[in-house]
Design brief:
Blueprint: H1 2-6, H2 12-16, H3 25-28, H4 38-51, H5 57-71, H6 75-81, H7 90-105, H8 122-180
Length: about 180
């Protein structure tokens, strides 16, 4: 599995040669941030899944990178995993998070569309938009945290399980090859 992943991920030499990352070279070149094993890949995937639901695109990757550095997990996997949220998937994920937040809070208020801009002016629309955001507030925030946590746990466990099954398959193939040798 490690060799398969290496084909798609950048290596630490890309960071070493980048002049913009030179001040962070000592931190970013730590070997555990680039090592591919079941612990670092599963942790990187979990961090990326959790940070992927943070509002704001660049903040997601920055948060994933900080988590990777803090927990010494695979940096490229953590950053690349945040890309599961994109303009197509973000709206359904936020609607699911909002519904999950309402379910956890025990309220039954349906999701309402944002206010449309009308001829009453920009200030009136901003006031309506602020009220709409406040209405979404607690259920959305709670739902995002719970959805991100659930995705992170599922990603971590799923990766560890998939890696284990891959190893068991390789061991079984090796055993069968050894038995057939003279």
């Amino acid at each position: 599995m490690r060799n398969w992943l290496r084909r798609f991920l950048p290596d630490h030499t890309a960071v070493h040669g980048n002049r913009w990352l030179a001040p962070f070279r000592n931190t970013l070149l730590h070997p555990r941030l680039w090592h591919l094993n079941r612990h670092s890949v599963a942790g990187g995937l979990a961090a990326g899944l959790f940070c992927g639901l943070i509002p704001g695109g660049p903040l997601q990757m920055l948060a994933a990178a900080l988590c990777a550095i803090l927990f010494r997990i695979n940096l490229p996997i953590a950053i690349l995993t945040t890309l599961y949220t994109n303009p197509i998937t973000i709206i359904p994920l936020y609607v699911v998070a909002y519904g999950l937040g309402h379910l956890l809070l025990g309220t039954a208020v349906p999701f309402t569309a944002p206010p449309e801009y009308s001829d009453r002016g920009l200030l009136a629309w901003i006031e309506q938009f602020g009220a709409w955001i406040a209405h979404l507030g607690l259920p959305l925030v709670l739902g995002l945290v719970m959805l991100a946590s659930g995705l992170a746990v599922a990603g971590y466990v799923g990766t560890r399980l998939a890696w284990r099954l891959w190893l068991l398959r390789k061991w079984t193939l090796r055993k069968s090859v050894r038995r057939t040798r003279p």
